[in-house]
Amino acid sequence: LQGDWSSDVCSSDLGAAASAPATMEPRLEALQQRLGYRFGSQALLTRALTHRSFGAEHNERLEFLGDAVLSLAVSGLLYERFAGGDEGDLTRVRAHLVREDSLHKVALHLALPEVVRLSEGEMRGGGAQRPSILADAVEALIGAVFLDRKSTRLNSSHLVISYAVFCLKKK
Questions:
Q1: pTM to 2 decimals?
Q2: Choice among 63, 67, 122, 136 that is catalytic
Q3: Could you count the other beta carbons within 10 Å of the beta carbon of residue 154?
């Protein structure tokens, strides 16, 4: 992790990596505005929002990566913010911040049910509102931002830190 985690972390403007293609779907454009991040690769954004029921190009690998990035960034934030905290306390706070319920709330805040890509059967079964699917999509988005930002000089932990700040403010 780089940089200092001062009040600028709470800013909703995380920078723009590249301008959006003219053909970007309005719902995806709106999501990027809510995220405060513009994807350089629309393919990464689309994959992050694609559940495995939709097809072979799904988000599970991005979810795996996003889970690791989220855990690392939240751990770093907690280490800095709670300098006197012991390992057990920090671990409990991190677990609370990265659990499915917290991720689901973030997904709802980002209006992910409007943009997640599911099979017709999964959609009919209420999958767009299922906490596990939405939490996984948040992790996949974090993984996608991490990969998308690798090609830029921007700090790849900003979105994750903003997520953690969002969760901490809810307490």
A1: 0.77
A2: 67
A3: 18
